[in-house]
């Protein structure tokens, strides 16, 4: 029989009030207090703090505080990744950000999801769907990436866009919901 945490990590329905999950979230909150207080710390010190909590942190990756996440241990960032101020990642399952991707301020990445059936949702269960952002992408400020989305390499997401479905490699998407406006040209 799987624990609630094992169910959560597998993308199955789970109960978020489980004591193991609550303890993990409390540890993440304590880490965020430390990390977000390190805004003026040297980059090497902030990188060491990231390495304490995240699944993997590539060489030269930068996440500017304040930064918020559910757990941290489900987030992988590649080399040269940059997240600007005020990013939020709800990482109840895997969130992967590829090498050299740049993410603007106040971007929100959601792997957390909820049942569509009202009775099931009322029971308090949740589930997650992984989010994958490829290499060399640009995610404009204020964009929202929804659960289960994959953004292909070299894609561009316009500021304020709400990405509800996969984005092809090299495409530019804008709007709410985000729509492809270009399959390779970089003008908006």
TrEMBL record:
Matching InterPro entries: Hexapep, Hexapep_transf_CS, Hexapeptide_acetyltransf, Mac_dom, Trimer_LpxA-like_sf
Protein name: Nodulation protein L
GO MF terms held by the record: acetyltransferase activity; O-acyltransferase activity
Purpose: Acetyltransferase implicated in the O-acetylation of Nod factors.
GO CC aspect terms: cytosol
Maltose/galactoside acetyltransferase domain location: 5-59
Source organism: Variibacter gotjawalensis
SUPFAM superfamilies in alphabetical order: Trimeric LpxA-like enzymes
Organism lineage string: Bacteria, Pseudomonadati, Pseudomonadota, Alphaproteobacteria, Hyphomicrobiales
């Amino acid at each position: 029989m799987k624990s609630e945490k094992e169910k959560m990590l597998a993308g199955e329905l789970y109960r978020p009030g489980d004591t193991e999950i609550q303890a993990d979230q409390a540890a993440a909150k304590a880490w965020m207090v430390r990390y977000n207080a390190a805004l003026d710390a040297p980059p090497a010190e902030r990188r060491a703090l990231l390495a304490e909590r995240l699944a993997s942190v590539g060489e030269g990756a930068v996440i500017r505080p304040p930064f918020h996440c559910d757990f941290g241990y489900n987030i992988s960032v590649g080399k040269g990744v940059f997240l600007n101020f005020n990013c939020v990642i709800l990482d109840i399952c895997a969130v992967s950000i590829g090498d050299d991707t740049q993410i603007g301020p106040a971007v929100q990445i959601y792997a957390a999801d909820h049942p569509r059936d009202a009775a099931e949702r009322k029971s308090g269960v949740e589930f997650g769907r992984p989010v994958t952002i490829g290499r060399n992408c640009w995610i404009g400020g204020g964009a929202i990436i929804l659960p289960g989305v994959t953004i292909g390499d070299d894609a561009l997401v316009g500021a304020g866009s709400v990405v509800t479905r996969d984005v092809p490699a090299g495409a530019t998407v804008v709007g709410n919901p985000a729509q492809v406006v270009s399959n390779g040209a970089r003008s908006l």
